[in-house]
Structure formats: C-alpha cells, structure tokens
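Notebook entry, structure prediction.
Reason for the run: the old model in the group folder had no record of what sequence produced it. Starting over properly, with the input documented here first.
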Amino acid sequence: MAIAKSNTNDLASLFREGYFNIPPYQRRYSWEEKEQLDLFNDLLEAFETKSIHFLGTLSLQLTSTKGFDAYYNIIDGQQRFTTLLLLYSCLAHLTTDKRYLLYLKRNEKYFLEPINQEEKEYLLKLLDGQQPKPTTYSQSMMLQAVKEYTKRTPKFIGKEKINDFLDHMLNKTQFLIYLVDDYTASIRMFESINDRGMQLGYFDKIKSFFLYFSDKYLNRSIDNDIQVTFDEIYRFFDNEDLKLGINNDETLLLYHYLSNPVFFESWSYTKSTENIFIDLKSFILDNAQKNVSVGKKYIQDYLQDISKFITSCLSIEQKLIKNLEYKEFYLLLEPNQRMYPLSIRFNQIGILDDVLPMLEKIEFYLKYKRDPKKDIFRLLEEVISFNGSKEELYNIINNKFCEIYEWQESAIDIVNNVSWAAKYALYLYNKTAYEQNINPTVYKKLEIEHIFPQKPSFPIRKYGFNEDTYEQLLWTIGNYTLLEKELNGSEGATNKIPEDKIKEDYINSDIKMTQEISVKSMKDVIERNNLFENFLNDYFYFELK
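New structure, fully documented this time:
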C-alpha cells in the first residue's frame, strides 16, 4: 500500500507501508551530538507528557511498487529519519521483547537503506545491534548516536519503561508526508530545501545539479560517472585517518575554477564561491541550449579534474607521513584554504617539493595582515597559463615572494603581534637550535608561556624593568616559550617569578628550548629578542635555486 500524499503518518505506518532509500544526490549522515540529543530530549518530553511529537515534513519520491510493497527515495528529512531509526534500534535491542526488532526489516530487507554501499553496510550493522569500528566521519557520527542513546536509556527512560517508550515512538511520532512526482523534481526540491537548518554546501549542490542535467538532457546517461566520482570524493573527505585539513565545500570549487579560466568568460581571482557556482551552472545550461554535448563534455571534464585533485591530495597525504616539511606546512602552519589549490597545482606539475619552502614563507607573511587570495590567485593565474621551463616558473614564484616580502613588515614584528606566528616561530627555533621535532598533535596542545608573567606578583624593578619597559617587552618573543597546558594552568607556572618557573615547571617540560630557558632579567629578554630577530631574518630569507 502506497503512502498517501500530504498525509500525516506515524512511525508504525511508515514501517508497514514502505521501504526507504537515501538517494545518490543526498549528503552523507552529518548530524552531530547536539542534534542527536535534541531529538532524544524532544521524544523524551513527549513520552513523559503523553503527547504526540511532530517531526516535520518527510519529502518522498515513489520509485516503484512490487505487490503490496512501495519503495521511496527520501528527498528531505533523511538526517532526522536516520537518527530516529538509530534511536529506535538501540531501544529495540535493549528490550527482551523481540517483536520490536521485526519492524526494522521485512523479508530480510531493511526498512531504511542508503544507496551508497559503504554507508549502507555500516548502517545496517548498527541497526543489527553491532558497533563496528568507523572508517569515515559520517560513520563516527552514527556510532556516536548509538553509544549515546544506549548510555542514556537506563538513566532517562529506565529499563522497565523501554517497551512503553517504543510504543510511544511507533504510534505518537508523526511526519507530514509530501510526495514528489518524478526524479527531476526530487533533485530540484533537494537543492531548494534544508534539513533542520543543515545548509547544503556548494559541493552537494554541484552533484545534484549534475544529476539534474543528466536526467533532463542526457536521459541519465552519465549518472553512474557522477556517482562514482562523488563517492570517491566523499570517501576522501569523510576519511577520519586523513590529516590534510581541506575544506571540501570551498576548495574543490575554487580548485576547478582557478584551474580552468578558459571556461568562464568573467574569470577573476576575486570572485566569491557563490558566484563561481552560479557561473558554473550558467556555463553548462547556456551551452545546453545550443549543444547538449558541450554541457556533457564539460561535466565529464569536471569529474576528471576533480579525480585528479583527489589523486594529488592522496599523494600529499603520503608525503605528510614521511616528510617533516609537509607536516610543518599543512599541519602546523595550517595554510589558508585558498592556498590549497595552488599547492595541489604545484604537486601535479611535480615541483611541490622544490617550492614548499617558498610557499611556507608566502603563507607566513600573507596570513599576517594582507588578504591572501589576491596574491595567491594572481600567482596561480600565472602558473596555470605558464608553458616554459621549471627554472622560469621558479623565478615567477621567487619574484612574487620578493614582492610580498618587500611590502610586509619584518618577521620579528609579525611574531610580536600575532600569537600563531609567535608559536610557529618558537617551534622553528626549537627545531633548529635544539634539534627537536615536535609531533603535530603535541604542538597543537602547547601554549605560549610568558616567562615574565602578565600579572607579576613581585617587584619588577628588581629585574631591571620599569612599568613602561615591562609592558613593552612582555608581549615580545624574547619573553615567550612553549609549554604544555598542564604545566601552565592555575597550579602551574602562571605568575611565579622566572627563577621558580625554571626550577619547578620548565624543568618538567618535554620541550628542550623550555627546559634550558635562562631568562632572569630585562637584559635577558632583550638579548633573546635580538637572537630571534637574527634567526627569523635568516630563516625567512629565501632564494629559490
């Protein structure tokens, strides 16, 4: 029996009347703890007050019927629907009454299944009561929901009331069903609506637009190409083991746009992400009106381009494991998102190893005051259109750095004004002077420690300062070091005199530079500032050979 259009259905009737699929244009599961607990608390309140809980609209597309069974794609509501099923499954596995588990599948087929095979297998294991190790972010979020619901059930519901809670979910949890007539309409609806405030990213919109174009103009002939490529991308960005911190929504769009100026009549390095997406759609649709094959070729070229992007990212990931310079640039310096298309382009050309020291310096200077997209885009524009030798390309990059370097303030001024730059400079000095490489995970937990404290509880003149010189030198790198958080808390170094910090706290640090700190006066701070100024001038002087 098919579900009636624009009708209110409780969960029990949905179990009885249909099988539900999460279609290929849907994003993967992304609800986090807040949304998961909001749903739990809403249902708990409805249970305690014996009231109906309305879960909003569930937009569906009827795809087929077989006998008395109806099959639907979920267009809007899949995050809520999946979370509701995870909660229901947890409760059904906690009760001894096995009839509740029978709702989850009929004839060995589960009530809800994603199209994506990888996510389908994981979700079905969760619904079956297993808790397999997740390999993607979306799987981690689903497992988190299962663990949290399993932990909260005895405390907030009580084992003796689980069956009553399940009955309430089945009969008092309701959706307003809205049916969409065809595939094209379902994709268009997916683009135009949001699931409980979870905004669609441009990445999701591109995929749904390509599927729409394939359906409307190409008889869905390239659906499989689109699905395969985007599955590859989802796996890459959803892999929790990957270290490269790329923002998939912006970087993919930027990368393709910047790498293919020939496709865009109004190409500009200053264009916003939103306008790039609008231009991409316009280019395809405008050409479709004249020659559909042009739009088809563009989409296929786009898919190939993005596959190359993923391949290049994976090769950088491999270098991150072994190469200290890659770790420093991508994990410690954390380059601006607009630097990624440039570094990935260099990796494809085969010169990233050579130019990485230069990119580090460009990033260091551009992150200070100047908007990085202007300089990086111009440099990328030159790289994209360049057809000369590697030596000539190196000169272009070197000249761009010199231009930035001449415009910027000195490195010592930057580190004395920006905390992230000071932390990175301290890391570099510790690595160079003390030959110690700090693991990125450890680095991110370190704090900048003021050797002479921000709120001294001792007479500063004893150490050569007056009020003006203390305030002036307090916020300079000569008065900084790196220190573990646990040694820098309320019971740690804080406002002690330097001598006590050195013998009581710094000696326990794992950072060699901190262990050997000998700053005990204003003169020492000044000398250490001069030391760092010389070090930074040497380090950030660079001429690409």
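Summary: The chain has 25 helices and ten strands.
The old model has been moved to the deprecated folder.
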